[in-house]
């Protein structure tokens, strides 16, 4: 009988089983040898997993190390995604663990009313990170949570004409200064130019969510065959650089000047901006009472700054 090892030049099972990493040995026995190594919760007590949990904050998030530079970018969301990924994919954590449950709720608190996870690129849409986070939440046991379904439906609504996904902001030819401004300030999100080709990398991150879902994994979106057939190349992927625009004679934005306007960008639709937990929004932003009247969820409403503490972003 042909097994999955047959086409391999070397059998990886023995090296995996001999690994000093207990998590690797556990999943090798469970997933490759169909053995019963015991409940996955035994991995949750490993020193490496506990080391991650020691830095978790009471609200379920993790603080991002280093100096915060952009108040509209949610550093804690970025760091929580990274640490939650280790807990779920390396140590098999699920919602049954209180710490993992708190982390999941923090991630959900960064979900907008439309269904996307907002904060990686300030207030711009992040289809790729939304897909990656939803896949982790599904693996952690939130498959039937209505918030996950809302996120998946939002992703379906954000497809390009070729049925793949891109990052809305990179579907336009923007200069560096404009990219910096849009991805580090409370600028309304750009709707994608759906006529542009999909990004292979962004599509791959989005598909993780559909592939992890018991019901959606057999859907056309998870297979994405039409997208793969329709395009042989992709739009450049990569998270737009978050750095100050250059200054000097060769810059599009001289020091003290104004940012040049991008070409052919449609007027952004009405959205719910991700505001900072510790700081008040930019002048002219809707007041907290106006946000409440418009139905914005509490996690996205601005809270007045009461101290001169360093500006840090958040969801709550």
What sort of overall outline do the alpha carbons produce when their principal axes are compared? globular
Please give the number of β-strands: 0
Count of individual helical segments: 12
How many domains is the backbone divided into? 2
Question: How are helices and strands ordered from N to C?
Answer: HHHHHHHHHHHH
**Poorly predicted parts:** 232-316
Structural class: mainly alpha
Relative strand content = under 5%
**Helix content range:** 25-40%
| End-to-end gap | 55 Å
CATH structural architecture of the largest domain? Alpha/alpha barrel
The CATH class assignment of the largest domain is Mainly Alpha
**How does the major sheet shape up?**
none
Rg over alpha carbons = 22 Å
What is the residue-mean pLDDT, rounded to a whole number? 78
CATH structural fold name of the largest domain: Glycosyltransferase
Short note summarizing the structure:
With 316 residues, this protein is mainly α. 37% of the residues lie in helices and 0% in strands. It has 2 domains: 14-43, no CATH class; 46-248, Glycosyltransferase.
């Amino acid at each position: 009988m042909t097994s999955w090892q047959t086409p391999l030049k070397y059998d990886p099972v023995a090296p995996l089983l001999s690994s000093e990493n207990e998590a690797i040995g556990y999943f090798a026995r469970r997933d490759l040898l169909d053995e019963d190594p015991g409940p996955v919760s035994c991995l949750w007590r490993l020193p490496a997993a506990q080391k991650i949990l020691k830095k978790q904050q009471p609200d379920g998030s993790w603080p991002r190390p280093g100096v915060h530079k952009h108040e509209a970018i949610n550093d804690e969301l970025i760091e929580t995604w990274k640490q939650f990924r280790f807990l779920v994919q390396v140590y098999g954590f699920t919602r049954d663990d209180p710490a993992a449950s708190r982390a999941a709720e923090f991630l959900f608190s960064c979900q907008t009313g439309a269904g996307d996870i907002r904060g990686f690129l300030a207030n711009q849409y992040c289809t790729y990170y939304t897909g990656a986070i939803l896949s982790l939440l599904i693996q952690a046991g939130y498959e039937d949570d209505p918030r996950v379904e809302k996120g998946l439906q939002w992703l379906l609504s954000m497809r390009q004409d070729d049925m793949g996904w891109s990052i809305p902001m990179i579907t336009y030819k923007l200069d560096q200064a404009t990219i910096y401004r849009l991805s580090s300030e409370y600028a309304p999100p750009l709707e994608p130019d759906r006529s542009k080709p999909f990004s292979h990398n962004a599509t791959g991150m989005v598909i993780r969510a559909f592939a992890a879902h018991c019901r959606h994994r057999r859907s056309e979106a998870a297979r994405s065959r039409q997208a793969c057939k329709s395009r042989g190349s992709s739009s450049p992927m990569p998270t737009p650089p978050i750095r100050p625009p250059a200054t000097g004679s060769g810059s599009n934005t001289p020091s003290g000047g104004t940012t040049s306007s991008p070409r052919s960008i449609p007027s952004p639709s009405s959205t719910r901006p991700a505001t900072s937990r510790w700081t008040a929004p930019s002048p002219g932003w809707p007041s907290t009472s106006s946000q409440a009247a418009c139905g914005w969820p509490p996690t996205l409403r601005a809270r007045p700054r009461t101290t001169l503490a360093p500006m840090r972003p958040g969801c709550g």
